[in-house]
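go over my protein:
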Amino acid sequence: MNKKLFACMFLLGLALGPVAFAQEKPPITWQDIPSWQYIRTGNTALSPDGNWLSWVSGPSEGDLSLTLRHTIDTSKYEFSIGATATTAVFSADGKWVAFRESPNDAAAKAARKSRKPAYSKLHVVSLPDTQQVTFDKIKAFSFSGEQPEWIAISFAAPESAPKGENVPKGADLLLYHLSSKKNFNLGNVAEYTFNKDGRYLAYTIDAHEQNGNGIFLRDMNTGITIALDNDKATYSRIQWNEEGTAFALLKANKNETYETPVYSVIGISRINGEKTEKVIYSGVDDENFPAGKGIAEHGRAYWSDDLGTLFFGIAKLEKKDKKKKSNGADSTATKDSVAVDSARLAKKDASTTSPVKSAATAKPKPKDDIEKPDVIIWNWQDKRLQSAQQVQQQRDKNFSFAAAYHVADNRFVQLADSNMRNVTIGPKQLYALGYDYTPYELNNSLDGQTYVDVYSIDPKNGTKHLLLKKYYQSAARSLPFAPNGKLISYYQDGEFYSFDLEKKQTFHLTALLDASFVNETDDHNVIKPATPHFGWSEDSRYVLIRDNYDLWRIAADGKQAVSLSDNWKQKKLRVMGAYSLYPDDKAIDLRKPQYFGVFNDATKQAGIALLNAGKTDLNILFIDDHSYGSLRKAKYQPVFSFTKENSTKSPELFLSTSASLNEAKQLTANTPDQEQYAWSAGVRLIEYVSGHGDTLQAALYLPAGYEEGKQYPTITYIYERLTQGLNNYAMPAFPGGGFNRAVYTSNGYAVLMPDIKYRLNDPGMSAVACVIPAVNAAIATGIVDSSNVAIHGHSWGGYQTSFLITQTNIFKAAAAGAPLTNMISMYSLIYWNSGSTNQPIFEASQGRLSPGYWDNWEAFTRNSPIYYIKQVQTPLLLLHNDKDGAVDYTQGIEYYNGLRRLNKPVVMITYKGENHGIAKDPNKKDYAVRMLEFFDHHLKAEPAPDWWARGIDLMDMEKHLEDRAF
């Protein structure tokens, strides 16, 4: 080459180097996900004094670390915690922190493979000097009280310990004195718990052969331990009262008369060494106790606030069958009964070809030898389907009916029974609410429109008073108690009410308000669904209820109401919910500053508002193009932490020492790997008008490297209303449904997420009316390549995807996960996860079709993908797992076989043993990769993967999977 030409080219290269030779960032791939580093914001803790914040971070797969960050200075400490995320536990005085260290990733996998137990360690760290002590093979731990001097640590049983249901559950319990570092070991401890101030430790012993079993109380100040009760029994479910002055528990004695142990309730009160008062009640010898019942093993036993009553559950007590003899014959059988049986046999039809034995020779077949049919009988009058009874069998077996024992007058009162199974005991135990579904249970199970008779119950004597006849519970589920235990509030026919249980008086709470309390965004087939009820005030004087936008403070008698948000409807601002910052409060204490989430429906901006103590006006502290969450307050100091994120910036932890949350400082640096990859350029909020004339919105997430004027392949992801998540970050991960927004935008796709508004009896057609205009509006922005648009959804989104491709050819490819495809057959199939039929889901929930197809045939067929299957021209990737307990596997099979019969391009993927969403990591990875390969082929003209182009024979599957493993 000419030297002069070379020199010119070299100089030109230098001049253009920074631009021409700049290294573009690569897109993130599925192979990058396992090493992706991020903070587990759900494992964050703030110390009670506000001096320390902890969080957990690490790769998606692998070993994690726990960070302790001082909130005042920049001190920061990191600890390895193995492969399982944990949340640090701070002592109440903020001087100590304890956390688990699980086995590392390699050790955990080896333990799973060898089916050996994997043990955790416990680290206890002194926060003033970060000195720590470690304990191996721990099971659980607990600091003692509000000024803790101790930490109690229970240890896992050794591998050599006997296994099984009836083996003793006791193990070593170590009491570690935090300042002196002295250890005290208690053996064979099964349960333990400190009272509120930490002075007392109640614990149970469960030893070999039940030797020394009992309930014990240790005074942590003196070290003196007393045995409150000893017996050849097991003791469980210790429950201290709130003040820490009394507790209750259960005691189980084996009894030859019954199949299961007979339980008693033990009540401990007025703690005073050996003079501590004890009450034991089993009900077995009480003539007022219901026959065939006993104290329930799975019920919670606890004291009333005044320590006069023990509350607990009762359940069926099975007697042993004493009829069987060692030879299998019925011990109650007599010569006469044998003769009767023989005579009955002799009267058989004379045409029988089998000879009948005489009474002298006939012997009844032992019951144990009888081959019984394996049968389930489904009767049309069953209030619950047989399938539901099977799925819920364990729940039914463990169900306990609320009851009370009044100590002073030795009196038992049953509160719940077979008709009124659900009973809620209110604050201060003054009243209870009982829910009787039996008059409506069958119809409730058929159409899902839930009705119930609601009663008030006097726990002193069990007297019931009908409050609400045929109450429509579908519109609003809860009837919350006021903290004083004398008032309740409820919603009925578009209005809120309160009821004074003492005076038996009803008050119309919303009568004076010029506002609607019917939820305008709830488009399910529910009659007048309610807007949110935020709860009662701590003093029981007010309820806080939101209309569709504004939050109202309404007096308990409805005579006074104040709008705390001052006509936010004009600004399209909603009060979204109240943050719970005071864990000891039973309700919203308006004497303290209260914080609320706020959201702008028009812009999708979010923020936090403050209601100052004793004030009646909400002040918006900030609202912007971010999402905020996880607001916490230190228990004893005005120190606050919260998360902040948007579509391109992952959640970061912020801390403020001001009640106004201003000057908050960022303490974390989340997702450090993001800088290495091409990333989404942001999000656009677009408006469109649906085919029904409604003005709706859609989120359009921009691809990495977005350039104005350039068009991009686009995935339309659908479910219902999705734009409320406009400013949410998408963490790269292997999801249970296969699609991850961050991966797709990083790989050059735009992602469109439209809102769908439904009309009853037209769920599929509503999706058509909303999604197609949204796609057209996105195309009109110039960002979306109209010739390369795909669609994906899972479950309900899968249904709409499978329906949309029967109505339009606007999509070049589609992926439908676990879709409903035939609304007629789906309507009467079983939702196997619960055992119930799908009919209530259609008639009172997401299905939005009512009544049954026999009276609504045209609507059911009009909205079923299967009936338009000939119109499908879009290549479809279909996912349906064979153990799907939500959408029956046959729905996918029916659609797949129909498309295959018509020679339509379709591939169905089934992961063996998986339910509605994919749970196993190898399956998640496999589906995520296949979906991206599918869309890359159809929207980016990448070569077709072999599993799409030609399919994989079963004999070749193992090799195929080996080649794809990563």
About this structure: The longest helix spans residues 921-940. The two ends are 47 Å apart (CA to CA). Residues 491 and 526 are 14 Å apart (CA to CA).
